[in-house]
Specification:
This protein is of the alpha+beta class. Helices cover about 30% and strands about 20% of the residues. This is Competence CoiA-like predicted nuclease.
Length: about 400
């Protein structure tokens, strides 16, 4: 930690780049934890920047330890960023009413924000508990993930753990994750999050140097859905089909139902497994949850048949109850409608002339999705579909 109470009860913060002679003066004094009032040790070694620490026998619950050099440096830089931009900021304040001590507490436009720079994994339970404590106290939490934790798979493809998905902010229309690198003195925004599976997302890194950026970027909200990865998505979707033919297991409910219905992953229509707005809510891959919608609600309907939105919702809920469709835990995007991506998918099928809008809560089957009869036809149908999608997006 970088702040403590002195013998007079005042909160003090260790200055940045403190000279050795002044450090000796600081080490001659006594310091105490604002949370538990235990005496602290002022550490000033060759590796970490000077900081306070509890003794090994401490049972303090208001502050987590140990802290890495990366974390100490990161929160100091973020704190200075707020101060340089004339935003009222407190370093590691102890909020006694909720027994929490955020890395930084800022006050901006009549709203308080708890800034948490997270460099190591914690349990989902702890993340949710801390988030709820801030929210119940009227403080908006802003979780910033250590940039070094982000795993890039390919160009514009990233692998996110269930823990990292918890950091999703902004809106379901334009979800993103804030990351920070104290080594580079830069924020990196992973956006827009466009999940292909429970872990893999298509995204791009937006680089935000602290030196020429105002912190209000942390509070901005973008409600416009954009999709920048149409060709990469197509390649990934095709790779899924090829891989699934070799590895699909009949004990998997999705593949079991697929084969029982007479479908092979290789011949599954390309209209199943498309990117749509709001699908960040759903942890299950788009191929699977859209496949369930198709098999449960569309497959056996004749052209001209009506299908009711309420029936689609009910079928979707049944798959959720069985654990065959799973939603993500997104505590920073609360209260979102789990059917939003379903609506977006039905709207897309309407634009693709598979469905026709038949009035409020009603769709009409306009064209049937049927398996191709050859690999050439399969390729042609895929080309036609993605050509239409590209035009829609552009």
């Amino acid at each position: 930690m970088l702040s403590a109470r002195d013998v007079n009860g005042n909160i003090i913060t260790i200055p940045e780049n403190i000279p050795k002679e002044r450090l000796v003066e600081w080490q001659a004094n006594n310091y105490y934890c604002p949370c538990c009032a235990e005496e602290l040790i002022l550490k000033a070694g060759q590796i970490k920047i000077p900081h306070f620490a509890h003794k090994k026998t401490s049972a303090c619950t208001g502050f987590s330890e140990p802290e890495t050099e990366y974390h100490l440096l990161g929160k100091r830089q973020l704190f200075q960023w707020f101060v340089d931009n004339r935003i009222e900021a407190e370093m590691e304040p102890y909020l006694s009413k909720i027994n929490k001590r955020p890395d930084i507490l800022i006050h901006y436009k009549q709203q308080s924000y708890a800034i948490e720079f997270q460099c190591s994994p914690i349990s989902e339970e702890l993340f949710l508990s801390r988030t709820k404590s801030y929210q119940d106290f009227g403080i908006k939490p802003i979780w910033i993930l250590a940039e070094k934790r982000i795993k890039r798979k390919k160009t514009r493809q990233y692998s996110l753990s269930a823990f990292q998905w918890l950091f999703t902010v902004n809106t379901i229309h334009s979800p993103m994750i804030l990351t920070f690198s104290p080594d580079q003195h830069k924020l990196y925004i992973l956006e827009p999050l466009t999940p292909f599976s429970s872990r893999t997302t298509f995204s791009q890194f937006t680089v935000v140097p602290l030196s020429n950026t105002h912190p209000n970027i942390l509070f901005s909200v973008n409600k416009t859905w954009e999709f920048h990865f149409i060709e990469e998505w197509r390649i990934k979707r095709k790779a899924w089909a090829i891989h699934s033919v070799k590895t699909a297991n009949h004990t998997n409910p999705f593949f079991y139902e697929l084969y029982k219905s007479g479908w092979s992953p290789a011949w599954l229509p390309s209209e199943i497994g498309l990117p749509v707005e709001g699908m960040v809510i759903i942890e299950t891959s788009p191929v699977e949850w859209q496949g369930w919608v198709f098999m449960d609600c569309l497959q056996h309907k004749k052209i001209g048949s009506r299908i009711y939105l309420s029936q689609i919702y009910q079928a979707f809920q049944k798959r959720m109850a069985k654990g065959q469709i799973r939603l993500r835990t997104l505590p920073l995007l609360p209260g979102e409608n789990p059917f939003f991506p379903v609506d977006a998918y039905l709207t897309l099928l309407t634009k693709l002339k598979i469905l026709e809008f038949g009035g409020k809560g009603i769709y009409i089957i306009k064209n049937k999705l049927v398996p191709p009869t050859s690999s050439v036809e399969c390729m042609q149908l895929e080309n036609d579909l993605y050509s239409k999608l590209s035009e829609m997006i552009l």
